[in-house]
Amino acid sequence: MPLQQGDWNWFKSTYVAIARCCCSAPFCLVLPSMEGDLVMSGWDEGALGQIRETFQFLQLILDKGLALTPNPRAPKQRRTDQQKGQQADPDQPEHDPQFNLMRYLQLLGLMALRQEHSLSVLQSTDSFILFFQPEEGGTLQGLIAETKKWTQQRQQGPQQLQTPLRQHLSQWMLTDLLNRATKVSKCKQGDPVLQACLDKRLLLEDLSWPYLRWNAEQKALVVDKKKSVTMPKMLQHLEELIQDFRDPGLVLKFQSLQTSQAQTVMPWKLQLNMRSDRPYELLLELCHSSIWLLMGATLRPHSPKPSNLATQVRNMMPKTKGHGKGKNHNKTRGAA
Fold this sequence. Notes:
Layout: H1 5-22, E1 29-30, E2 39-40, H2 45-54, H3 58-62, H4 81-85, H5 97-123, E3 127-132, H6 139-156, H7 165-185, H8 192-199, E4 212-215, E5 220-223, H9 231-244, E6 251-256, E7 266-272, H10 277-285, E8 297-301, H11 308-316, H12 329-335
Helix pairs in contact: 6-7, 7-9, 9-10
């Protein structure tokens, strides 16, 4: 492959610079043309031999078409999302505006679904759901009454309100639960209130608060094998929660998720600040505890489902090929 004009100029300048650095003889170099011979004077034969030996492979270095063949034994690299997105559909050329628009909408929908998933993961780490039964004497009726009272005070004068509604309702709910638990703890043997708690399995024989789980066969809540919480420990947890909930920045959301008047169970969402670890740990420990049945409710961690919009976007996305299960999938599963 003949040298190009740019490569030839680079060759001459590099040749001269290296020759000046490597040789101590008087320098005189004549390069008449690209095709002509190199004419040197004032050099000894040893220096000229070293220079020719040094630059004999320069032609291969300047050859831009030279490339190493790929190693067939090298492991295949996993394609990134950007490389996957750069693949062109053979039926739709890349320069087609309609194809580019459809590809853009595809990537936009995929990004929206990933954002929805990230938000769901965050909500599952800082939120709880309280399921209230609309029964007489339950805490739900008190929450509704406190909401009306708070609204009236706000209309009369906002300066009279010291706490936001979400903090006021959450504090009132925990205080009401503590009062109910304290009343049960002071009951003596044979008291109707204590006997009702024992009959409904809110309390065990040692007056500890068990954990309950749903039995699909019996279609009822049954006592779980998880170690129950003693009465003094439960009262201590509730007092600590009430103290923590005095922080105005703790509760981010406490509101009803009711969507229909025909609902028999009223869900309420309680969302805490992610920087407050101790209140979250306490509530997580009290999830599925029978203590919440005292106020006609149950507490569970929030497990959000995909929104309706996210479901519609997912259904409109083109079906992609799933991941393989491997050659020995059935063997491994049978062995396990």
